[in-house]
Amino acid sequence: LAGYWEHHGWWGRGQSQEALYTYLSRFIDDEHHLHLAPIQELLKYDYLLKHHRYTLPDGLCSHNPADINERLYSYARDRDFISLWLPTLAGRPPREIKKLLHLEYLRLPGGEARSLEVKLLFVYHPHPHHAELVLDLSGAMPRPWDLVSLKAAAV
């Protein structure tokens, strides 16, 4: 990785957080292409844990449906969902709640050469903007999600 970094002239220059994810994605694409898709999903997951943004860095693609904003807003408006799963946000207006949420669909490798799509809701702390909770909304009932869940789903 260090040689690749130096070859592209990135050594000794300040890099934004978004650029680091882009460069890592490019490295995997160029040097380990067969592993590109699962690594990009892991990079996307890592990025969203640490950064509350509405767009992803270049090189990381979203698999979200076109109506993602409406889906996210429906969770923010659902008082029962908020009181059960996000009680610290209860009583806030849906517009304010929505600003602290990010919904992202990840495609993880599954068994027998198929992929598993999971729908994750990232819940951010207002300051700093890191995820304090991630919920898996893929099944009938939401459940907490963490890196152990991510590794288990990939097996």
Write a compact overview of the structure shown.
It contains 7 helices and 4 strands; from the N terminus they run ααααααββββα. By secondary structure, the protein is α+β, with helices and mostly antiparallel strands.
What does this structure look like?
This protein is an alpha+beta fold and 155 residues long. It has seven helices and four strands, in the order H-H-H-H-H-H-E-E-E-E-H. It has helices at 2-7, 17-31, 36-50, 68-77, 79-85, 94-98, 147-154, and strands at 101-109, 115-124, 131-136, 143-144. It has a four-stranded antiparallel sheet, sandwiched between helices. A hairpin with a 6-residue loop joins strand 3 and strand 4. Helix 2 (17-31) runs antiparallel to helix 3. The longest helix is centred in the N-terminal third of the chain and has 15 residues, at 17-31.
Helix content: 40-55%
Strand content: 15-25%
Topology, number of strands: 4
Shape: globular
